[in-house]
Amino acid sequence: MNNESSFDWNRRQFLQSGSMATLMAMMAGMEIRAAEKPKADAKAADDEKPGPPVKCAVIGLGAWGRDIVKSLVRLPNAPVAALCDTYPAFLRRGAQDAPKAEAVEDYRKVLDNKEVQAVLVATPTHQHREIVLAALQAGKHVYCEAPLAQKVEEAKVIALAAQAAGKQIFQCGLLLRSSPIHNHVVEFVRTGAIGKPVLVRAQYHKKTSWRSISPNPEREQALNWRLRKETSPGLIGEIGVHPVDVAVWFHKALPVAVNGFGKIIKWQDGRDVADTVEAVFEFPNGFKMIYDATLASSFEGSYEVHYGTDGTIVIRDSRAWLIKETDAPLLGWEVYARKEDFQPSKDAGISLVANASKLLAQGIDPADAPADSDSPLYYTMKDFIANINHAKAPANGAEAGFAATALALKANAAIAGNQKLALETEWFSLA
User: Taking the complete model, does pTM exceed 0.90, yes or no?
Assistant: First the structure.
């Protein structure tokens, strides 16, 4: 149940409605970056307050699991009560950030711990099912990394069990659904600021092998589960699941077909999982999403582009830019927005910055605020604890987690076969 450290920092790198406050910021000539929605009532304001402590346990302490621990300990109400990994070295490393946590190698001991209220599962994907089902059966709140499983059937079993768990919170690690910038950009897309959707394009480029080395052959094989088809959901499953989910979320639609391409180009080391992939998703209203990922080149890194007939939004890390078409209708507020030359096109882009309304309330000009240094993982952990305290259904719960997982796994099958697959709507339903 261990994560491969050389892969996980790559996932970390990748994941590093226009309110009245937004319009006021623009009219003042300020740089816009994603304003928060105004609070509707006192209850909404209360939801922002840290609730009572929720004692957590993290199972799986590779680099990504340790990042989860680091995010939890930053929160005022998420004490880490237990840590679990079958590899003693990973267990020791995890304990450095949570020295008071009970450290065990058997996850069943975590589930027997009555003090543990929430379990966060960061094991290899193909090991999720057993642990998640046991945690739900033990009455724990559960956070499970995305994708939910390495097989569609197992992902459905997990999602159905989560739905049947009653008052327990189940949250899938679709990190970008907790990203402040994505939660603002979705309003721009849905309210027509970019016009009719034309194309979504996203990429992940990082020259790295995904391979870990160990003097113990058995240990090395366990670490490199992502390099074998029998245990790996591939690049589209481990990384692409996030931007693909964003396209589904933004446009409230599931694709009807996917065309996949994959090949081992750089790392001829005995693996049977492609190091370079491309998937083209066809959506019912005519637009497409193109996703490509490679471990053979780092050029251009990672970003998302949402093209429309009136404008295009580019998202990279915690920032986004809106580049309007010259013939787009004037919405009014953009005249006053602060613009930047967007490379490489050199078009004038309206810069979108997260939490502008909060900055304004603090007397800070959003144009002068530094980029958000907190990762989507941190916001996901914050949301998970808040959802537990407020008994709130997560946006990235069982249904969304299953749909995203099933879509990524179907795309991986298309990539493995270098073929086009028609996608049936019922494949993504839990009914």
Answer: no
